[in-house]
Design goal:
Layout: H1 2-20, H2 25-38, H3 44-47, H4 54-71, H5 74-86, H6 90-104, H7 110-128, H8 136-146, H9 155-168, H10 178-199, H11 211-222, E1 228-233, H12 249-253, E2 256-262, E3 265-267, E4 281-285, H13 288-297, E5 301-305, E6 318-324, H14 336-339, H15 341-345, E7 348-354, E8 357-359, E9 373-379, H16 380-383, E10 393-396, H17 405-426, H18 432-445, H19 451-457, H20 460-479, H21 481-493, H22 498-515, H23 518-536, H24 540-551, H25 562-566, H26 568-571, H27 575-595, H28 597-600
Antiparallel strand pairs: 1-4, 1-5, 2-3, 2-4, 6-9, 6-10, 7-8, 7-9
Helix pairs in contact: 1-2, 1-20, 2-20, 4-9, 4-17, 4-18, 4-20, 5-6, 5-7, 6-7, 6-8, 6-10, 7-8, 8-10, 9-23, 9-24, 10-27, 17-18, 20-23, 21-23, 22-23, 22-24, 22-27, 23-24
């Protein structure tokens, strides 16, 4: 009893730390794991057995395989087809932009599906003159519902399956609960079509169509007219023939040189010894008072104004583009300066968008985070040759992106390998873990991904979180904590019957996953659900499936899943938007669990 109390106490502390979100989740999970060893609910071998779990191995392999499929251009081809189907109707936009990511998230990672579709929905909304606020959150929720289509749709699915296998020797097949996933996608999509217009506000609406108007929108959104200035080199003045470095713009005035425009061509990458010529335009970044000081003290420079006064940004040969940092990107934790975009791609970062506002100071040295938008500037020859690949995703690209030649060559093989993995696992020819590892290895052996690229696609923090949370189920079992919780639930609700009791468990799991990562919620609730089922003589798979569906829908708060958090700044969402729009989906999720799961999976064991 004392150990059971200690286990619940550790779990409560871990849950609180997850909810506060001040300490990384993987570190919290590992620290709690060590405490569980210290109190005697786990031995060291049990504590770290999660790192060899099939759930961890499958997740890592599928991240590599999904990344290879995304880079192959298959997803992009699907996305491009939506431009012709969506039109200008808000409902058609929602239908096209939710069903496809919902279906994709059943076979590729949910976060990958959402991050790919964020720029798509932004562009579709821009063309149709519709607010992204009414498009992005529904898209992310339907994608989360799509994770219920297959066993590999989410890491929490694999975790629950692993716990079920350890406790009962039962397992889910790859497509065993696909009917429930189809119902979830359909219900969530219908809800979005009927409720998004009424429950989500119309914010940050852009009505521009052409490239000039899109450029103007970027200038306004990032406030470049307040920080970027054009300085003209006057003929017959002392600065003509002087080197750029001789002006000492950075040293004496705190101004950064963005680019030099000469003869209508932008030169963003000139060294300090490059001589200035009559008619040159220096594009500099900094506060207006610093620019005024430079003009006053440097003979031969004249302030032409902000580039925002032109139809395009500076000279016609230069342009602005916008990219987004997706989850698991290799650039997370690095700065623009460390990435060397100036040296490698001749592109200059002018601003970042984070937390619903622009950042224009110390852009080059700011450490990038997932979900950041980066505004880049450069000559069209460089912007249109820039291939962000898996490091960035386009938000505003200069023209329709093309799959690089090498990736286009490997695309058929990559897709064939992916389909082979899914088919072999679905037909039961080989275990899912073997198929996933073989697929990940195959795409690297054929050259579709290098070994370094493959490892960069793996979200190691999520893997550590899964591996660290798996033994919590064993701790709950060893200490009797889950059995005690199950006895309390059976005693309090068992007289109502199996279905109401399963509904209570699903409700607890749904509430828990709003504040926790869904993997953590699954690790806590799955052993309890299985124990309740065993004590009531019910089917453990049915109760485990109820938890699986419940923890997939973190719809009231953005903390429980990266997908709704990822769309937050792009849609300008406030916490009230999540609660108002997500409440209906939460109710519908519980109804699906109560009405449809028992009709597909019998409640009675055997």
């Amino acid at each position: 009893m004392e150990i059971a109390f200690a286990v619940w106490l550790v779990l409560l502390v871990v849950i609180a730390l997850f909810a506060i979100d001040r300490v990384p989740g993987d570190a919290v999970a590992l620290a709690g794991l060590l405490v569980l060893v210290a109190v005697g609910s786990l031995d060291p071998l049990e504590a770290f057995a999660g790192f060899s779990s099939p759930a961890v191995i499958i997740t890592a392999s599928l991240l590599v395989l999904g990344g290879a499929v995304e880079r192959s251009g298959l997803v992009r081809r699907i996305v491009d087809g939506l431009h012709h189907l969506a039109g200008n109707s808000e409902r058609r936009l929602l239908l096209a932009g939710t069903v496809v990511p919902g279906l994709l998230s059943g076979v590729i990672n949910v976060i990958a599906a959402v991050s790919v579709f964020i720029p798509v929905m932004l562009r579709l909304g821009l063309r149709a003159k519709r607010s992204p606020t009414r498009l992005l959150l529904p898209m992310s929720y339907v994608a989360m519902a799509g994770a219920n289509l297959t066993l590999i749709g989410a890491s929490a699915n694999l975790l629950i399956n692993d716990i079920l296998r350890r406790r009962t020797d039962m397992t889910f097949g790859l497509l065993e609960f696909a009917p429930v996933g189809v119902i979830m996608v359909a219900v969530t999509t219908l809800y979005a079509l009927s409720a998004a217009h009424w429950l989500l506000p119309e914010r940050d609406m852009h009505t521009e169509d052409g490239p000039e108007e899109q450029t103007r929108a970027l200038i306004d959104r990032y406030g470049l007219s307040q920080r970027i200035w054009e300085l003209s080199v006057l003929p017959g003045t002392p600065v003509v023939g002087a080197g750029i470095g001789d002006l000492r713009l950075a040293e004496d005035y705190g101004l950064s040189l963005v680019s030099l425009v000469r003869a209508d061509k932008s030169r963003p990458h000139l060294d300090k010894f490059s001589p200035l010529m009559e008619g040159d335009i220096l594009l500099v970044g900094g506060r207006r008072e610093r620019v005024d000081a430079a003009i006053e003290n440097i003979d031969g420079l004249e302030l032409s104004g902000s580039p925002a006064h032109r139809d395009d940004f500076s000279a016609g040969s230069a342009e602005l583009v916008e990219v987004m940092v997706p989850p698991r990107s290799a650039v997370i934790g690095k700065s623009i300066h460390e990435l060397g975009l100036r040296e490698k791609a001749d592109l200059t970062a002018l601003a970042l968008w984070r937390g619903g506002r622009p950042m224009r100071t110390d852009v080059e040295t700011t450490v990038l985070k997932a979900g950041d938008a980066v505004l880049l500037y450069g000559n069209k020859r460089y912007t249109r040759g820039f291939e962000p690949e898996s490091e960035f995703h386009w938000l505003h690209e200069p023209k329709r992106g093309k799959v690089p030649g090498q990736e286009r060559y490997f695309a058929p093989w990559t897709v064939a390998i992916f389909l082979g993995v899914v088919l072999s696992a679905a037909m039961g020819w080989i275990p899912i873990v073997v198929a996933a590892v073989a697929g990940a290895l195959a795409v690297t052996l054929i050259g579709a991904l290098s070994a370094r690229e493959a490892y960069s696609l793996i979200d190691w923090r999520t893997l550590v979180l899964i591996a660290a949370m798996l033994p919590y189920a064993a701790a709950l079992d060893n200490s009797g904590a889950s059995a005690g919780m199950a006895e309390w639930l059976v005693g309090g609700f068992g007289q109502w019957g199996m279905l109401p009791t399963m509904g209570v468990i699903a409700l607890l799991a749904l509430l828990l996953t709003q504040a926790l990562h869904n993997v953590a919620a699954a690790a806590v609730m799955t052993p309890v659900a299985i124990d309740v089922a065993l004590q009531m003589g019910a089917n453990p798979k049915t109760f485990a499936l109820a938890v699986l569906v419940a923890v997939s829908m973190s719809v009231l708060l953005p903390a429980g899943h990266p997908a709704p958090l990822l769309v937050r700044q792009h849609g300008g969402y406030e916490m009230a938007d999540y609660l108002r729009f997500g409440a209906g989906i939460a109710v519908l999720t519980l109804l699906v669990i109560l009405l449809f799961i028992p009709s597909i999976f019998p409640l009675q064991d055997g």
